[in-house]
Design goal:
The chain has 8 helices and 7 strands; from the N terminus they run αααβαβαβαβαβαββ. With 205 residues, the chain is an alpha/beta fold. The radius of gyration is 16 Å and the shape is globular.
């Protein structure tokens, strides 16, 4: 058997996907202003998941300045897809809308402002993919709504599952028959934080 790479973190840090100028600007802005973003590795994963699933309707819970929504929209753009993203903070929502315009994606992304747990019951359309990235203590409460809104065989991605406040969500989704889920302990360069958990799940019922 081959030996493991000696310094895996340095090796994989050198393989971080290179985004365009706007994404790089948003990464630098996030560093300066302490804005928690998913970073280029999870961003690229979201793009890949949106593309390989053929997702046309995507729901994001937690917009911030729009970094992850841009990746999702680029992933679903060829199939004429659209992202609905929910953001609590009006200032962040305005900044995100401006970033979507700069990315040429304003027609592909709709921002709705309000608390995610309050907005979720107002949604009725089925979604092919849901990205969960709000306050971690709200993950468990959001799970039944995600199940209601997600198509059968749709994909749920939950960020930051390494946080203590996400522990109850992690336990629940691993035990519910309605889901097939895997929680991954990851090294994610330029993610916030770089050592964290990521949950991928498929709605089965």
């Amino acid at each position: 058997m081959s030996n493991m790479i000696a310094d895996m973190e340095s090796h994989f840090r050198g393989l971080v996907p290179k985004g365009d100028d706007l994404l790089g600007e948003l990464e630098q802005e996030a560093l300066r202003e302490n804005i928690p973003i998913v970073g280029p590795v999870v961003g690229e994963l979201l793009f890949i998941l949106a593309r390989i699933t053929g997702a046309r309707r995507i729901l994001e819970l937690g917009t911030a300045t729009g970094y992850s929504a841009i990746h999702l929209a680029l992933g679903c753009q060829p199939q004429g897809g659209k992202v609905i993203t929910l953001e609590l903070d009006e200032v962040n929502a305005r900044r995100a809308r401006e970033n979507f315009k700069r990315a040429g994606l304003e027609a592909n992304i709709e921002v709705r402002v309000g608390e995610a747990l309050s907005l979720l019951p107002t949604l009725s359309e089925p979604f092919d993919l849901i990205f969960l990235d709000i306050n971690k203590e709200a993950y468990l409460a959001a799970l039944p709504e995600c199940q209601r809104l997600l198509e059968l065989d749709g994909v749920l991605v939950a960020d930051n599952t390494g946080f203590q406040d996400a522990a109850a969500f992690n336990q629940a989704i691993s035990q519910l028959n309605q889901w097939r889920a895997v929680n991954l302990l990851c090294f994610l360069p330029r993610h916030s934080p770089e050592h964290d958990g990521l949950c991928l799940a498929v709605r089965m019922q």
